[in-house]
Known about the structure:
The chain has 264 residues and is an alpha/beta fold. It has 8 helices and 8 strands; from the N terminus they run βαβαβαβαβαβαβαβα. α3 (78-98) packs parallel to α4 (123-140) and α4 packs across α5 (153-161). 42% of the residues are buried.
Amino acid sequence: xxxxxxxxxxxxxxxxxxxxxxxxxxxxxxxxxxxxxxxxxxxxxxxxxxxxxxxxxxxxxxxxxxxxxxxxxxxxxxxxxxxxxxxxxxxxxxxxxxxxxxxxxxxxxxxxxxxxxxxxxxxxxxxxxxxxxxxxxxxxxxxxxxxxxxxxxxxxxxxxxxxxxxxxxxxxxxxxxxxxxxxxxxxxxxxxxxxxxxxxxxxxxxxxxxxxxxxxxxxxxxxxxxxxxxxxxxxxxxxxxxxxxxxxxxxxxxxxxxxxxxxx
Length: 264
């Protein structure tokens, strides 16, 4: 039986403890975390998030790493590439030390060839960066899941080049059903490397983060494929739609939980 999970930010501005409490109250098994300190209503150190989730009886499916400068992984400027790679290595090691077993990262933002400031499409640069990332993952025994974003060719290249038990795939259903993406084909291709999922729906125009079955994503075929893999949690990255914003946080979470269980 697949477990149920949800990202700890689900569209309501609340302290992290309150969000985790409500997620558990709505009967979710797992939570996904973001690797960034929180400041409202008081400072909370990200290094304590895993233990905090566990205190509320939640498993941690994965921690998402920051991705704002991820195109630097492919930069032909060595100092920029190495600086960003080292920042990621530090994040990964800190996640492991906090109790995480799996992290999610982006390989790119958009099409790197359209970005200036020294970025290159020379895949050798990305290979050099990920060689260090995979070596660390194998050394400290933490799983790295690379996510499908716009222009999947970068993630596809990394999964092809590095055949490691500690490097796998994070499938985002919404990303895969916009911008002319594969509509499930990449999940079929990489299902044997699937570590985790980000499930949400959209209208085919933008990454809406709707609850499953509201938009165009073919969840029946996607979930059927997921059931063939070792991925054990249907984890969602969802926010309330305009019509759902009238719901209280717990009402939205219970709606999300029921939608999640109906998928499986």
